[in-house]
Design brief:
alpha+beta; 3-stranded antiparallel β-sheet; two-stranded antiparallel ribbon; 5 strands; 34% helix; globular; disordered N terminus
C-alpha cells in the first residue's frame, strides 16, 4: 500500500505525508551551537532558525519552503484573522503557528506553547521555528501546514534550497 500507515493500535488507515522533494544539499553539519539569527532576513533567516530547531536534510529545505509559502518569510506576519474565535487566535510568524487565546488551559501539552506573546514577531523567530519542529514531529509530518497539503510550498523550493545550501557552505558564523 503506497502512502498509507495505520494509526497506532487502531487499525485505521491514515495517509502519510508524501515523500519530501529531494533537496540533495549534501552534508550540512554546522555544529551544536545555535546559529546566530541577527542580521539575517527572508529565507536565510528561516533556514538558520529551522536548522537551530532541528530540521535537517530534505526536511530542512521543505520547512524553509513552507515558511515562504506561509509568511513570505516575514517573521511579523499575522494570518487566519478571520478564523479567530473564543478558542483560537491568529496564525503568527514565519511558520504561521496558530495561537490559542488561553494556552495556559492546555498545560503539559504541545498546545500550551501556542502563545502569541512567545511565537509572534522578529524577536520570537526561534520560538516559532522550534514550535514548527515540534508540531512537525521532528520534520516528519508537514500536514499541519496548508501550503504543504496543497503543494503551494513547492514554488519556494528553489529559494529554500539556495538559502540552505548557502548556509551550509558558509559555516555557522556566516
Amino acid at each position: 500500500i503506497d502512502n498509507v500507515e495505520f494509526e497506532q493500535g487502531s487499525g485505521v488507515e491514515t495517509p502519510q505525508d508524501p515523500p519530501l522533494p529531494n533537496a540533495d544539499i549534501g552534508p550540512c553539519d554546522l555544529g551544536e551551537s545555535p546559529l546566530p539569527l541577527d542580521g539575517f532576513t527572508g529565507a536565510d533567516l528561516a533556514a538558520r532558525a529551522a536548522y537551530n530547531a532541528g530540521f535537517r536534510g530534505d526536511a530542512l529545505v521543505t520547512a524553509v519552503a513552507i515558511a515562504g509559502g506561509e509568511s513570505s518569510y516575514n517573521p511579523n506576519a499575522v494570518g487566519d484573522v478571520s478564523l479567530q474565535n473564543s478558542k483560537w487566535g491568529p496564525s503568527v510568524g514565519l511558520f504561521q503557528i496558530r495561537t490559542l487565546n488561553n494556552p495556559q488551559d492546555y498545560a503539559g501539552g504541545i498546545d500550551e506553547k501556542r502563545n502569541i506573546n512567545t511565537l509572534a514577531g522578529a524577536s520570537n523567530v526561534q520560538n516559532n521555528a522550534n514550535y514548527a519542529y515540534e508540531l512537525s514531529k521532528g520534520g516528519k509530518n508537514f500536514k499541519p501546514w496548508s501550503v504543504f497539503t496543497n503543494n503551494s510550498y513547492k514554488q519556494y523550493l528553489d529559494i529554500a534550497n539556495n538559502a540552505v545550501s548557502s548556509m551550509c557552505a558558509g559555516g555557522p558564523m556566516k
